[in-house]
TrEMBL record:
<dbReference type="GO" id="GO:0031167">
    <property type="term" value="P:rRNA methylation"/>
</dbReference>
<protein>
    <recommendedName>
        <fullName>NOL1/NOP2/Sun domain family member 4</fullName>
    </recommendedName>
</protein>
<keyword id="KW-0808">Transferase</keyword>
<feature type="region of interest" description="Disordered">
    <location>
        <begin position="321"/>
        <end position="351"/>
    </location>
</feature>
<dbReference type="GO" id="GO:0008173">
    <property type="term" value="F:RNA methyltransferase activity"/>
</dbReference>
<dbReference type="GO" id="GO:0005762">
    <property type="term" value="C:mitochondrial large ribosomal subunit"/>
</dbReference>
<feature type="binding site">
    <location>
        <begin position="128"/>
        <end position="134"/>
    </location>
    <ligand>
        <name>S-adenosyl-L-methionine</name>
    </ligand>
</feature>
<dbReference type="InterPro" id="IPR049560">
    <property type="entry name" value="MeTrfase_RsmB-F_NOP2_cat"/>
</dbReference>
<feature type="binding site">
    <location>
        <position position="184"/>
    </location>
    <ligand>
        <name>S-adenosyl-L-methionine</name>
    </ligand>
</feature>
<feature type="compositionally biased region" description="Acidic residues">
    <location>
        <begin position="332"/>
        <end position="341"/>
    </location>
</feature>
<dbReference type="InterPro" id="IPR029063">
    <property type="entry name" value="SAM-dependent_MTases_sf"/>
</dbReference>
<feature type="compositionally biased region" description="Low complexity">
    <location>
        <begin position="342"/>
        <end position="351"/>
    </location>
</feature>
<keyword id="KW-0949">S-adenosyl-L-methionine</keyword>
<keyword id="KW-0496">Mitochondrion</keyword>
<dbReference type="Pfam" id="PF01189">
    <property type="entry name" value="Methyltr_RsmB-F"/>
</dbReference>
<feature type="domain" description="SAM-dependent MTase RsmB/NOP-type">
    <location>
        <begin position="22"/>
        <end position="316"/>
    </location>
</feature>
<dbReference type="GO" id="GO:0003723">
    <property type="term" value="F:RNA binding"/>
</dbReference>
Length: 351
């Protein structure tokens, strides 16, 4: 198989593909047992997209979203549709002010946003926000005359892309309610204790991406999920501290390894016993519960959506602030893809 994907940094010498592929195979066969061959096949298939309607779009509903144009998905967001397998959506049209009619997204990502249980007046923080897919979904739940959204990302380059995306979905006159910040989300006090809803869409192994990009797969080792988990825990602990209780914090990844999923949530619960608990996921249109009360969407059984993991955490209504977490190290060194390592601080409006 010829190498495909982004070239790894020069200091990370890729290992022979056959060796890594065999290790990866053995690792996930042990993880998923008899399910793995079908799951691997589904992960290697092209991604499926839903079209999420932009409620702030100023022209009539486009044909792509009309009844019969695509199948409605059973989500709280009324206008979210999918094409039959193999069909694609046309690029979204723009209205007179440049706002786009819809955003193409994996429906599993929308379930994670639904788990936030957003009310129109919520103050929402999206800790790892770029390029902004879940932020666009959050915006559909908010009334921007009352609610607010802070979209953060550590990467300057990805923040620039995030601002472009937000500008295509939020009218200029409402853009003061949507801010973009550039912080390391794991840094202490990056956000203050202000938010009623917090989303942590953590950088992770992104296994579907890994399997489809052999150059990046060559950087994978059996230790990679544990290294990601260390940084993910740090991000989740800081996110819990940014919650103004009672609040909902949703932790989500697109990783397969349980160490990056239930493992991180379990460690966070141990850090903050009595203050934080899992709100067990209620039945969703696709996916399966995890042992800890999270939810896992895997493409072999979901009709192609995912992989996605999420867990909703309830932060108790207590006056005392949560104690700062122990330092967990930088956890870096093995970033497979969705990473933002050029962190610096900054803040500005979206749009
Ligand atoms: C899985 S992607 C987020 C996808 C995004 N939520 C969406 O729906 O489009 C993870 C993001 O985390 C950012 N990131 C990595 N480390 C971070 C950190 N320490 N603090 C904040 N963001 C970070 C990356 O730059 C990347 O954009």
């Amino acid at each position: 198989m010829p190498p495909r994907g982004k070239k790894p940094p020069a200091h990370e010498k890729p290992r022979p593909l056959e060796v890594v592929a065999e290790e990866y195979e053995r690792h996930f066969r042990a993880h998923f047992g008899a399910r793995w061959p079908a799951l691997r096949t589904a992960l290697l298939s092209p991604c499926v997209h839903a079209a999420l309607a932009n409620k702030r779009y100023g022209a009539g509903a486009p044909a792509e979203l009309a009844d019969g144009g695509a199948e409605a998905l059973p989500l709280a967001l009324a206008c979210c549709r999918r094409r039959a397998r193999g069909e694609t959506f046309a690029p979204p049209p723009a209205d007179a002010s440049g706002l786009l009619a819809y955003y193409l997204i994996d429906a599993a990502a929308l379930l994670a946003v639904e788990a936030l249980d957003i009310s129109p007046g919520d103050q929402v923080l999206d800790v790892c926000s770029a390029p902004g897919g879940k932020a666009v979904a959050i915006l559909q739940h908010l009334d921007l005359s009352r609610g607010q959204l802070v979209c953060n990302d550590a990467s300057a380059e990805r923040c620039a892309r995030l601002r472009r995306v937000l500008g295509q979905y939020v009218p200029r006159e409402q853009s003061a309610a949507v801010r973009v910040t550039q912080h390391d989300g794991a840094a202490h006090s990056a956000f203050g204790r202000l938010f009623t809803r917090v989303l942590v869409d953590a950088p992770c192994s992104t296994d579907r991406h890994l399997l489809q990009n052999t150059l990046e797969l060559q950087r994978w080792t059996t230790l990679s999920p544990a290294k990601h988990a260390e940084r993910q825990l740090s991000l989740l602990c800081r996110a819990l501290q940014a919650a103004r209780s009672p609040a909902v914090v949703v932790y989500t990844t697109s990783a397969l390894d349980a160490r990056e999923n239930d493992g991180v949530v379990r460690a966070a619960l141990q850090r903050f016993p009595e203050r934080v608990r899992v709100r067990a996921a209620s039945q969703m249109p696709f996916g399966e519960p995890t042992p800890l009360g999270g939810w896992l969407v895997l493409p072999d059984t979901s009709g192609g959506w995912g992989p996605a993991y999420f867990a909703a955490l309830l932060v108790a209504d207590v006056a005392a602030p949560l104690p700062p977490p122990e330092p967990v190290g930088d956890g870096g060194g093995d970033d497979s893809s969705d990473d933002g390592s050029d962190a610096s601080t900054g803040e500005e409006g979206a749009g």
